[in-house]
Write a structure and sequence with these properties.
This protein is α/β, with parallel strands linked by helices and 399 residues long. The protein contains 13 helices and eight strands.
């Protein structure tokens, strides 16, 4: 892909019926839409409507189900109640479990919530079936504040996907970010000077080092990009409730973390951050084949990062288990870093004036990048998600 020289950005790399979550209906004729408007209505335009659609889908499921609402301190821009909702469908003693996480990066929840709601609707209608011996666990809106306010971060400016470090130990250093901090968010507002500094760093150190410096995670600049915080965030504490609620180590588990914003438009890349030559990586490749990419091998749209949610799950998963990130591409990545930089320059940690023109402008740009919201992209998202859940289910049942 040809780079936009004016804006240094992050690199843009990249049979038979299965048992499990299968579709029972015949394929529609080619002249018909792949997915109906009713199916695409799983996508919502706000956190509040996404949560209501999710809860409606839960209510339509055959009983019994386990549903736990984890309170979240704070409110949405219209005073909405915020919460993380945890669903378990199937036998709580099941030895095989598929787990779906959404909105670790809040604004990315538009797609993640729709995927979760679509699956529940299909289970409720009988189009899909939960196989015997397999359970489904869903964590809806890990970061509900970011989802409601259309930010990747939480109310403290913390990137939840950099927050999973041991805060009792010295925090990781990112000297590359320190060198770029003023260029990423220029205090004087001189974006031309800042862009020139970023370009200079990129030319000197190369694309990989530049990406790690800018996006790998940092614990020093609280108003900066990809800030991991100085203590466990509220969203992390709620997710730790999930980690402690069930015994994951004695089960076979497929964790699918739903994200958007990196990669080709509409393509869902399966990113695996398990260590090289680990059992988790071998399991991911056995279940998902060559579509599973590995940042440490350099074949992914992502690079190795600090403090990922993945690492908390890695520590507790047993044999024949893995954690993958299903990352959907949107628009060319050259403009993404600039959008994130402007978002952090305009919208500081905490609530802000929702109707302020500058805030609304950057919010709309950020939301568009992480959620294009048009039917072609939505269709690609749901079809790929159905395929990935199918592959995970098949892999678990064949173990």
């Amino acid at each position: 892909m040809k780079k936009e020289k004016s804006e240094p950005g992050l690199a843009n790399r990249r049979g038979g019926r299965y048992p499990g979550f299968f579709t029972g209906s015949a394929s529609p004729p080619m002249r018909s839409p792949l997915l109906s408007e009713q199916t695409l209505s799983a996508f919502s335009d706000t956190y509040a409507s996404a949560r209501q659609q999710f809860l409606n889908a839960v209510a339509a499921l055959p009983r019994p189900v386990f549903l736990q609402t984890l309170d979240y301190v704070g409110s949405g821009p219209q005073g909405e109640t915020l919460a993380t909702d945890v669903l378990w469908l199937g036998d709580q003693a099941a030895r095989k479990v598929v787990v779906l996480l959404s909105a670790v990066h809040g604004v990315e929840g538009f797609a993640g919530s729709a995927i979760q709601t679509d699956l529940l609707r299909r289970l409720a209608s009988g189009e899909a079936k939960l196989p015997d011996g397999l359970a489904l666990a869903i964590v809806h809106a890990v970061n509900p504040w970011g989802f409601a306010w259309c930010r990747r971060v939480d109310e403290q400016g913390i990137d939840i996907n950099r927050n999973f470090v041991d805060f009792s130990q010295p925090l990781p250093r990112n000297d590359g970010y320190r060198a770029l901090a003023d260029a990423l968010i220029p205090a004087d507002g001189d974006w031309q000077r800042a862009d020139a500094m970023l370009a200079q760093y990129l030319n000197k150190h190369g694309q990989f080092a530049y990406e790690v410096a800018a996006s790998g995670g940092q614990y020093e600049f609280s108003a900066g990009l990809f800030y991991g915080g100085h203590a466990p965030a509220q969203a992390r504490r709620n997710l730790e409730w999930v980690l402690n609620r069930w015994d994951w180590s004695d089960r076979e588990v497929a964790v699918i973390d739903l994200h958007t914003g990196l990669g080709p438009y509409g393509y869902g890349e399966l990113i695996c951050d398990h260590p090289l030559d680990s059992e988790g990586l071998h399991t991911a490749r056995r279940w998902f084949g060559a579509s599973a990419t590995v940042p440490e091998e350099g074949n992914s749209c992502s690079v190795p990062k600090l403090g990922l949610v993945d690492y908390a799950w890695h520590a507790i998963l047993g044999r024949n288990s893995c954690y993958v990130t299903l990352e959907y591409g949107t628009f060319p990545i050259a403009g993404l870093l600039r959008t994130l930089r402007e978002d952090h320059a305009v919208r500081k940690p905490g609530p802000h004036d929702w109707n302020d023109p500058a805030s609304a402008r950057v919010r709309d740009r950020l939301r568009l990048h992480f959620y294009p919201g048009e039917s072609q992209w939505q269709t690609l998202v749901l079809l790929r998600a159905r395929q990935v859940v199918q592959l995970a289910c098949t892999g678990l049942l064949q173990n």
